[in-house]
């Protein structure tokens, strides 16, 4: 089993820290306890997503986890192509520096492993037929 953390964009942390932190502290300051508790729950949920977004290669499967919302298992033999992507579509990725994994006939998912080269190498060890379109690939 090999686990890969998601790359995290610092600007995303700053943006969410401001967007979620300011209302929380304003609610505390104004003693709006209901709103403060609600904001605390939202902050905890976002923190949970950040701490639990990762990708596991285990046996012949790629497991993609992001909080309790995303738990996807992909047969690595079904992967057709891995390519660079800066697509902003919602995905289990904490960065816009992403790779797109195309699998089965028409399926695709965007992820952002911190160590893309090592991730790609691990996939290729299991399925050497995967087409790689990754500009920084040194494989």
From TrEMBL:
Give all residue intervals belonging to the Uncharacterized protein YyaB-like PH domain: 53-127
- InterPro entries annotated for this entry? PH_YyaB-like
Alphabetically ordered keywords of this record: Membrane, Transmembrane, Transmembrane helix
Give the residue spans that cross the bilayer. Answer: 12-29, 35-57
Mention one GO biological process in which this protein takes part, according to its record.
bacteriocin immunity
The protein's name is Uncharacterized protein YyaB-like PH domain-containing protein
What organism is recorded for this protein? Flavobacterium hydrocarbonoxydans
